[in-house]
Fold this protein.
Amino acid sequence: MGGLRKLAASFVVPGPCGVAIRDRLGHLTARDERVLRAVGAHQGALASRDLKARCADGLEHSADTWASRKRELTGLSSSRIAGAITKATHDQWALARRCQAAHIQNLEAGIRTLRHRLSLPLGEQGTKRAAGGYRSQGEWFRKSRRLAALEDRHAAAVADWQAGRVRVVRGGKRLLNTRHHLAEAELSEERWRERWEAGRWFLAADGESGKRFGNETIRVTPNGEVSIKLPAPLAHLANARHGRYTLASTVAFAHRGVEWADRIAANRAVAYRIHLDVERGRWYLTASWQRPVVQTIALEAARARGMIGVDTNADHFAAYRLDRHGNPVGDPHRFDYDLSGTADHRDAQIRHALTRLINWAKQVGVAAIGIEDLDFTTETTREKHGRRKRFRQLISGIPTGKLKARLVSMATEHGLSIVAVDPAYTSLWGTQHWQKPLATPHRTLSRHDAAGIAIARRALGHPIRRRTAPPPHDRSDRAGHRTVQAAPGNRGREGTRPPATDRPPGGPSPNGTRKREPSASNTVRDAPSTQQWVQDSLTRTG
């Protein structure tokens, strides 16, 4: 096994710890929209100011500076709104720090690859594990300049990380850059301005357990009535008591509506967010709350009823069902999806494919689904794959993060567990050991189907290969038994035959079947010797 990396142990993925549901705010009046826009713009300006202050603090942030910022915002809004804004600011700053660390790791991976390839002679062939040398002197020179550029970027990123500097754009960096490419985006300046302003609004409130209906700032009653606590400068817009504004629209959550109603009836915390979809011109209300951490089942319990192995590809899931002994059952299944088009279309395709996969898993009666713990962070660099742009785009297009999050949450709702396995060598060994043996004249097994078998066997705790080679000398046990064979309790599958001493000669075997007596051999070599050979004396005559 020299040269192969150590495989990580399989584990059961923990379930989701939060829930979010959404409904449309329909039939809003013109006054309702004006109030929502005014509140969103006012609180959005406060959020931008607070984020600027937090970024300026950097690593010098403390509880005192947090309290000071909250006091400043309270006078311009309310204590609850100020708390929601400062909490959102800290979450955004922490996310920027994590993205900065990931960017540094990506730069380091590119630098290592460039240094390795530049150290090789020109034209040297690469391997599956590492790229080879560059093809010409000109390419070598261009890559040396790129190495210098990456080293400069890495030094600047590390300096920002050590100083605690982050760069955050409220509303999104992509939308900000779109302002300079309106023609390519087919947007007018007015239309872009609407998206930009809507993206920078702040219309959200954290829930509070013990308060009426679980939220004092944005309150939703059991009959769907929505009211908002207005900030102090906009209190004159109120149409209800205590500085509140009640919308003309009502909401009715079709999905998880009963669970939501139970929470607000018990005055348990529920967070709300109101946002505008500029393209559709529709307002939406999103409700979210935390769940107790779901206790995952033991790995052995997940393996008890077999496993479905899923190989993730750019356009489909290749799934194969295995029993608890690691034997393939039935035919492979393929669940297609199309990741082209808009983000909403890609998300819908993923959800539809996962729904069909989960329904099949429930139908066959397994308790868990095995999937690779994929992470293509180091696989998408241009330094590793060079001119293979289509391959880089293919890997980058697989939504590994969103896929894992959706699969875990959807499977948990149906009582299924997700077992994550190390993705190393699953396609290679699955093709080597399973593709040809399972292929028939009426069934063509792809390498993705074979990879699904390898994933399921690894999730079940079995080796990927079907069976090890017999002892090298002969069929006796001088060199030891096979290293992969059935346990003593599974004699019906791969157990040895019962010894001949367990039954009388010619009598029935222990399982009730007749055993034919051994017939006489037809070869001289195997016949028993019944004649004594004597050498005659030789007579010499002279």
